[in-house]
User: What shape does this take?
Amino acid sequence: MNAGPAADELDPDALDLPISALEHYSYCPRQCALIHVEQTFDENIFTVRGQIAHERVDTVGDTIARGLKIVRAMPVWSERLGLQGKADLVEYRESGPYPVEYKLGKRHGVHADVQLCAQALCLEEMLGVDVPQGAIFYHALRRRHEVQLDAPLRDLTLRTIEGVRAILQAQRLPPAPNDARCPNCSLLNACLPHVIAEPHRVRGQQGALFRPLHLSEEVEGA
Assistant: This one.
């Protein structure tokens, strides 16, 4: 199994990380901190659709399909990396376990690949086998995208684990990106990237919020 040399440098005793946080961090470190530090989670049309799409696959149990044993909503963990979470679906092929992650929309970057790779690292530790491949099923396309769990992706996943752990240990929000990722984020109203990313607007908001009471009364009475 090729987990990469950085794996031994991680400190799993520090925090037990949810695997889902890795995708959040890969997409936006501030989003990750809002969810996993501030415990903030708002719904939008994309999160609701995602929950509906997961209803069938999240039914816990074993089945046989096309001659393969399939385990749905399989708990996975790694004591070595300090990870815990759930694999949407794991197929047991002749070549070994094959994790499949379900996503709502189309493919955007490698964020889901990192989450899938973390599941594979857990399966390798739990079962003592190699997991060289997996797939992401995109509901919008109604097909799978196969992912090679190679050394570069494993290294990226390990760096992401370190990044998430640093955020949870620091208990602070990273800066707001205020870029193309923001409009579709369900945490847009909680994050306020258009305000936080512009220091002069933050100072203006702070000045209005913390105006002394007697000054506010003078303004109202003028």
Notes: Confidence is low (pLDDT under 50) at residues 1-8, 44-48. The longest strand covers residues 68-78.
